[in-house]
Write a structure and sequence with these properties.
Blueprint lengths: L13 H7 L7 E4 L6 H9 L5 E6 L2 H11 L5 E5 L9 H10 L4 E7 L4 H5 L25 H6 L3 H12 L4 H13 L6 H11 L2 H6 L7 H12 L5 H10 L1 E11 L2 H14 L14 E14 L2 H6 L7 E14 L4
Parallel strand pairs: 1-2, 1-4, 2-3, 4-5
Antiparallel strand pairs: 5-7, 6-7
Helix pairs in contact: 7-8, 7-11, 8-9, 12-13
Bound molecules: S-adenosylmethionine (SAM).
Length: about 325
């Protein structure tokens, strides 16, 4: 399978990140999704020599690219890990103790996959080019998409495609995929897309100028394979509570499922109760203050120049001095 020339990932909402996650002199920054280091490069370019920047990513190839791009910068440390588990990592804890004992000035979580991952057919994320059915962000751990699919029943697969892809035709799509798997014809990304098209024809979507019908199913399987939403709320809360007072957390999401979790977690930590009946069962401690309550989206120029930015939303919150009780509701 030929690998087309890979274009670099363009960091989304970069200006909004720079404007809303200011790094003070000798600032301490944690980037939980370093990727190819696009945001890191821009943040470090503005920061002083006393700044320290810790970049974490679960993908070894992303870390390699970030290292090649920024590795000469003595302010930067790169760690392998996930934002769910890095908190227990010895190297991470050592860095925090040595560099940021009072907490962090800025934490960035730019969720999802990078263009590098999406555009490399060998990673198996894309329905536009033939590749193995892999979809692991860290190709060294966990099971591939094909192995994951092999463990599904019609019902569990349909549930995942519905929950993580918001695909209304999840049941017939799941049946078509498993039919292809059991017939021995499901090996590659194009085979998976072809199974989806038997239920949701691509030509119809094209005629109606709708997104490719395989988009939602690929998203769902990728989220399931990587466990992307399982502990996201906890990771966001941990990131927020690792800030020092006045420090800021930015979370960039790319679809409504991620954004809902980011929004609800930040609102809860801001003392806002979103449960049924709008009546808080207890006083919620307020650890954060929301900045731009609805989040920030790409402007026209960015959306035109970098299509992935069209679905991105940046939510920002600032750590308060100490937890403050609140009874206020939105
Ligand atoms: C959208 S990209 C980040 C791009 C980066 N901000 C840049 O400008 O180059 C998301 C990155 O997060 C990584 N990632 C996804 N889930 C992760 C997790 N649970 N823990 C750590 N990294 C994760 C992916 O491997 C990917 O490199």
């Amino acid at each position: 399978m030929a690998t087309p020339e890979l274009t670099l990932h363009v960091p989304v909402l970069l200006q909004e990140v720079l404007d809303n996650l200011p790094v003070p002199a000798a600032g301490r920054v944690l980037d939980l999704t370093l990727g190819l280091g696009g945001h890191a490069e821009a943040i470090l370019a503005r920061a002083d020599a006393g700044t320290r920047y810790l970049g974490v990513d679960r993908d070894p190839r992303a870390r390699e690219r970030a290292l090649a791009r920024l590795g000469g910068d003595p302010r930067l440390t790169i760690l392998a890990g996930t934002y769910e588990d890095i908190w227990e990592d010895d190297c991470f804890q050592g860095w925090m103790l040595a560099e940021a004992p009072e907490g962090l000035d800025a934490v960035l979580m730019d969720l999802g996959v990078s263009s590098l991952q999406l555009k490399d057919p060998e990673r198996g994320f894309s329905f536009q080019a033939e590749g193995p059915l892999d979809m692991r962000m860290d190709p060294e751990t966990g099971i591939t998409a094909l192995e994951w699919l092999s463990g599904q029943s019609d019902a569990t697969l349909a549930d995942a495609i519905y929950a993580y892809g918001e695909e209304r035709a999840s049941r017939p799509v799941a049946r078509a995929i498993l039919r292809s798997l059991h017939a021995g014809t499901l090996h590659t990304t194009l085979d998976l897309a072809a199974a989806v098209y038997t239920v949701l024809p691509r030509e119809v979507a094209r005629r109606k100028k709708q997104i490719d019908p395989a988009t939602r199913t690929f998203q769902a399987i990728r989220i399931a394979v990587n466990g992307e939403l399982e502990r996201l709320a906890k990771a966001i809360a941990q990131a927020a509570l690792s800030l020092k007072p006045g420090g800021r957390l930015g979370v960039i999401s790319f679809h409504s499922l991620e954004d809902r979790i980011a929004k609800q977690t930040l609102r809860r930590l801001s003392g806002i109760y979103d449960g049924p009946g709008r009546s808080a069962p207890e006083v919620l401690p307020r650890h954060l203050r929301l900045i731009h309550a609805g989040g920030l989206k790409a402007g026209e120029a960015e959306a035109g120049a970098n299509p992935p930015s069209r679905s991105a939303r940046l939510r920002i919150a600032e750590r308060l001095d100490c937890p403050q009780p609140t009874r206020t509701k939105p």
